[in-house]
Amino acid sequence: xxxxxxxxxxxxxxxxxxxxxxxxxxxxxxxxxxxxxxxxxxxxxxxxxxxxxxxxxxxxxxxxxxxxxxxxxxxxxxxxxxxxxxxxxxxxxxxxxxxxxxxxxxxxxxxxxxxxxxxxxxxxxxxxxxxxxxxxxxxxxxxxxxxxxxxxxxxxxxxxxxxxxxxxxxxxxxxxxxxxxxxxxxxxxxxxxxxxxxxxxxxxxxxxxxxxxxxxxxxxxxxxxxxxxxxxxxxxxxxxxxxxxxxxxxxxxxxxxxxxxxxxxxxxxxxxxxxxxxxxxxxxxxxxxxxxxxxxxxxxxxxxxxx
Length: 307
Known about the structure:
Low-confidence stretches: 1-15
Largest sheet: none
Number of helices: 11
Structural class: mainly alpha
Radius of gyration: 23 Å
Distance between the termini: 26 Å
């Protein structure tokens, strides 16, 4: 699949609201198909298996300690009864440190792999034709430093969004509220505002990544983020629309696959393989969402003539 290239020079003609709307739709369309490059998605899937295995290993050990020597192991593999659940609760205290450590290490690995995978996506977006695995990996390594700096800078806008959301939650607390529904509505509104703030902060980070991708000469993650923020200010509906549409589509697809995975009956090897396939498809949906979002924002920034 090919991605188009264009000059990064500022656009000379003024944008009307209609042309901006069409540009947003074009950017959305331009992002959906190129993000389906199978080598790129497979690279994401294989990379995400590493932290998954690290997180699963302590849980595997805990389940093995509980059920490997049980005469009812076959039945328990299909359904846990009350006694088995009580045994697991008791074993969790013994393995809690290992499970927590596995989760922390897996999270750290995921964060450290993120710049590499985003760099591979950037290389795929720049290329006029689909890249081989070696070229994608080389692109991820080449872009790693700049994207790692952007990941570190992301702490600032995301932290500010969380802080403002916490302030909103504090304001929403109504100790003197007469009706419980009033307090619940205020808490719900505060939660929605906090979620929107976090999503908006993340949109500014993705816009900064898009600008880093368009200009290989950029080295400052902070300046790229500032320019990404400027892009959102200049074209708020197009940027937020592309970001929200792709995010919603990706999350809905991943959620549907996750629900299907949870409803796969435990009937043997076929069910296990089917559940594993559905789980990996959910991961691929999230990987596609990340890549498509970046491609769409790159297309918008390119059309706006952002530097």
